Amino acid sequence: xxxxxxxxxxxxxxSYETSWDFINLPLIRPECRQPKLHLTxxxxxxxxxxxxxxxxxxxxxNNRIFIEAYSLQDExxxxxxxxxxxxxxxxxYQYGNSKSEDELEALLLADTMRxxxxxxxxxxxxxxxxxxxxxxxxxxxxxxxxxxxxxxxPSFPADEDNVIPMLDGDWFTDxxxxxxxxFLRIAFGEEHYEENLRFVEQALGKDxxxxxxxxFYNDHVRRYKKRPIYWLFSSPKGSFNAxxxxxxxxPHTVGTVLEYLRDFKDEKLKARKNxxxxxxxxxxxxxxxxxxxxxxxxxxxxTLAELDDYERDVLYPLATEQVEIDLxxxxxxxxxxxxxxxxxxxxxxG
Length: 350
Description:
Blueprint: H1 2-13, H2 37-69, H3 91-95, H4 101-125, H5 144-150, E1 164-165, H6 176-188, H7 193-204, H8 208-223, E2 230-234, E3 241-245, H9 253-280, H10 287-321, H11 331-334
Antiparallel strand pairs: 1-3, 2-3
């Protein structure tokens, strides 16, 4: 009985990526995965419910044996309430008993979709892969070549340069939102892609781009208890954001982030501004279109000023330093080396 209880606890704990023995996400395992994500979740939820009830049954059986052995029938009862069944997949334990069943289920579903997004980002960086269980790239300085030696023909390839832009708009083909959409298509198929994306977004309470921009990094920092494995380069007002994976960091990585910043600022934003300026004086444009164009130009000008300052004062000097890190020193030592280039984390940033 004790062994069964321990195994249930291990199975639960190892289903989450912060476990040393994490293999892959339960949602994408063959025994659960369906073409429709909501059916996949229903199947997984049934497994979790069964695990919770089995642990409750075993604990109550254990209590009965103890009570009978010591004749404590008048003092103790064998019953164990659901909120004392210590499994992360048990919403009564994870969120407390003060909420309704519907609220508990909504919280569990939202957290499960956050787990899916986090796992997808891990696949983007090559930490995980859809084609092989366990950690793929998890040693300092590993490269895309190391990844391809382990997975020669990945169904969802890892990002080549270890820099993934996270922006408010479709500016880059390897933008994190586009890559997540690609992940969803490959992991669950093209046929029900739109329905599956809606399911994720409804669970999160916002569209996927907004989630990445507003919530993902905070969730990641919380998940890893202020020791994030993905680091967010972010301009002061967040107009430019790019994510890197610390295990794949090289001294030239900041230079790659700088290239993305310059491409975004000097090519993409300025091209957009030129288009809008032409529109604002076009004889064929309505007054409403011209006014809208002028407002967007004003916004772009502010963004360009922010990004010019970020490049000149922060990112360019840092790129020329070719900063070295040693993962053995830990995140607490390495993260502050990048100063204002990275998103501020209370108690961690320099």
